Amino acid sequence: MNRILGYLLGIGSNIKPTENIVSIMALLLEHFPQLSLSRVLKIPPIGMNSHHDFLNVVVFIETDLSEDELKAICNTIEINLGRDRTDPSRKMKDRSADLDILTAASFPNTTPIKASEITDEYFLYPLLEEISAYLSDQGYQLSQTGVALQLDGLSFGQSATTINSKTYARDKRIIQ
C-alpha cells in the first residue's frame, strides 16, 4: 500500500467565516491539486475576548514542499484575506484567516492519530481524529454536525471529503 506524505493544517476564521473558509480552500487549490478535509465545525472563540464563532477545519495536503515553503503559502493566504501578520497581538484578535501547520503526516496510518501529541488546541482533536480515520479508511463517528459550505457549486463541510482540482481545466469535483 502506498503511503501519501504531506501536512495536516488547522484552518479557522471568525470574520465572515463562511466566505473566508471557502476562499481559503479555493486559494489552497491554486497550489495543490487535492485537499482532504475534515468536516467544518462551528466553535466558540477560546482564549480571546470575542463574540464571533469560528469555523474550523483540518486539511491534509499531499506535498513534497518543505514546511517553510508551505508556511509561506499559508501566510500569503492569510494576508490576502486581510490578516495583519505584523500585529503582535494577532493571536488574541478576530481573524479572517488562520492557517497553522499542525504536523507532517503520512496516510494511510495503521495506528490512530494522537491529537494531543500534535496540538494543545483541544477543539481540533475531533477534526484531527476524523481526518486521520478518513484517510486511513477506518471508521470514525463524530457527533457534531458539520457546516455545509459551497465552492464552485460543490458542497463540503458536513463530512470528511476530498476535493480534487484539475488546475489546467479549472474543473473541481468532490469525492466522498
Describe the structure.
The chain is α+β, with helices and mostly antiparallel strands and 176 residues long. The protein has a single domain, classed as 7,8-Dihydro-6-hydroxymethylpterin-pyrophosphokinase HPPK (Alpha-Beta Plaits), CATH 3.30.70. The protein has helices spanning 17-29, 67-80, 125-135, and strands at residues 4-13, 34-37, 41-43, 54-62, 98-107, 149-151, 154-156, 161-166, 171-175. Strands 1, 2, 3, 4, 5, 8 and 9 form a 7-stranded antiparallel sheet that branches. Strands 6-7 form a two-stranded antiparallel ribbon. The relative contact order is 0.24.
Features:
alpha+beta, Alpha-Beta Plaits, two-stranded antiparallel ribbon, 3 helices, globular
Write a brief caption for the model:
The chain is built from three helices and nine strands, in the order βαβββαβαββββ. The protein is an alpha+beta fold.
